[in-house]
Amino acid sequence: MNHSFSDFGRKLTGHSGILQLMDDLGRPLPEGVTPYRLGGGNPARVPEAEAMFRREMERIMAEEDGFEKLISLYDPPQGRIGFIDAMASFLSTTYGWKVGPENIAITNGSQSAFFYLFNLFSGTFTVSDGSVRRKKILFPLVPEYVGYADQGLESDTMVSIPARCQYYDDHSFKYFIDFELLESHLENHDDVGAMCVSRPTNPTGNVLTDSEIHHLAALASKYGIPLFVDNAYGLPFPDIVFIDDAAPYWDESVVLSMSLSKIGLPSFRTGIIVAKPEIAAALSNVNAIAALASGSGGQEIARNCIATGEIVQVAKNYVQPFYQKKSQQAVAWIHEFFAGGDFWVHRSEGAIFLWLYLRDLKITTLELYKKLKERGVVTVPGEYFFFGVEDPVAQCHGHYDKCLRLNYSGPEDEVREGLRLLAEIYKENR
Asked: What is the pLDDT of residue 78?
């Protein structure tokens, strides 16, 4: 029997970059092919973070009924009360933010949170006079996280501003927000429901500076729209940030998304949203309908670590230096293996990825991805990250089909050999 899906069903089940990425992450390669997994978003295992969470799990197991209470009860849709209280207290005490429990909502991973947020603030709106309007999510800088691209329930709900690009003498380059284009778009389009950025940026490792994030927040306030800031790799944890000009920021125009994944708990799917109360309440309501409740495990394991500030110290003292060292080593290998080519690496300022631009590549990175996979090297083609741009080939500096996202967080021998093979296949196709 053949089944037909709704338009929404076909949209969610069709081909997408995030589906390919996650499939590559878990699906074994053909027999006899050694895998070099440079594509997925799995964080590395940092011993000090694992030891902290192991200790907390042992505490739970040792408490009377601790394990049973953890696994046998639903939490409220907003999240685990003790965890929310700890999070609100930490943020208000540490940063002076006017944040209470009413400002916090927990979702089953930040990916779910953005699905809810995008569809709360984009799509079809019926206004008080009965008229209908459509609104979109505006991304001030592309390339941007592939997982956003297909999250709108309705079609044509994402629009992006191409980045400015600056090149440096050391085969590095950097994207910047084109504020002139951004402000022109906001001034001339009344269909923007919200803006969204990741900080650090997935896939490039770009970190928006404090002045850039303040500028975006001011624009959000001016136009009466929220600014979503995806802080999955940022401060205060997991602190995978390699520049100094990137302090945590929140005000009532900002919806700040945090996560426990990149600090070491990806399997527990714990997204943390900081927003004004009405948005936090809306997220809780949607979470109740879509997921009934949020998962308890990650919240309980991390609760004491947040309350005492230990999670921040582990991030600062162990997680951040761990990734920075791995990033520097991977960049050095790229310079070694790609020497003589027209290659450019986005300045590594944070996150767990490198963004490689192969300017003289004669094929697209989608084609290169297939050739690499035959040799066991799994990457993510850059084309998937330029969504919401009317003409990405013309507007995105030629980068649209000449870039790859590379995850450098795996074992050193695997990353090194994967980069060596990538360089070899690139040189065959330049």
From this structure: 87
